[in-house]
Amino acid sequence: MKSYRVRNALAASPIPLNDWTDLLFKTGEMMNASAQVIGHRTAQMALAGPAPSQRDRHEFTLMGQEKMEAAAESVHAMAIRIMSLHQEAASLAIQHMLDGAVNLAAVASSSTLHQSGRRQSKLAHDTIRNSAEAVSQFNTSLANIAQTGLHPIHARATANAKRLNKL
């Protein structure tokens, strides 16, 4: 199996739409390559008839083997990414709780009503900002997990399409 570099799942692109768009294009590219491979192999099976040659049998065996390997690599890569996401999400949650505790302590230690109001406003602002950032990072992380899972399948499909187009 190939090993894939594990990126920081929560420190990805600042714009989740970019990651989802990349996933969309890679999926389309993979589907196009898969259609070419399926067409080529179906034609090869039809031409081989009931008594395929050694080369045909090798290609037909390779079909199933590649699918199993790509699926295993995909699941493995996504599992690693999900585990790192859990660790990073826990770290982010702890950091946000600590930030909130500091802001709450500041509100509690306010000496005037005006100061308390400013600190409460800062607490609300920081909480909303942190929540929005966390949702955006999580959305990006989901796209990255999907991209990680697609990579082995995409790589096999596009490599097969190139190889079979040469035949």
Can you characterise this structure?
By secondary structure, the protein is an all-alpha fold. The protein has a domain of 96 residues. It is 85% helix and 0% strand. Helix 2 packs antiparallel against helix 3. The radius of gyration is 25 Å and the shape is rod-shaped. The two termini are 27 Å apart. The N terminus is likely disordered.
Q: Order of SSEs, N→C?
A: HHH
Helix amount, in percent? over 70%
* Backbone structural class: mainly alpha
Largest sheet: none
Q: What gross morphology would you assign?
A: rod-shaped
- What is the strand content? under 5%
- Rg, nearest Å: 25 Å
SS elements, strand count = 0
Output the number of helix runs: 3
Overall mean pLDDT stands at 88
Spatial separation of the terminal alpha carbons: 27 Å
Low-pLDDT parts are 1-13
Question: Could you list some keywords that capture this structure?
Answer:
167 residues; mainly alpha; 3 helices; rod-shaped
Give a quick rundown of the structure.
The chain is mostly helical. The protein is built from 3 helices and no strands. The chain is rod-shaped.
Strands, helices and their partners?
Elements: H1 16-48, H2 54-108, H3 113-166
Helix pairs in contact: 1-3, 2-3
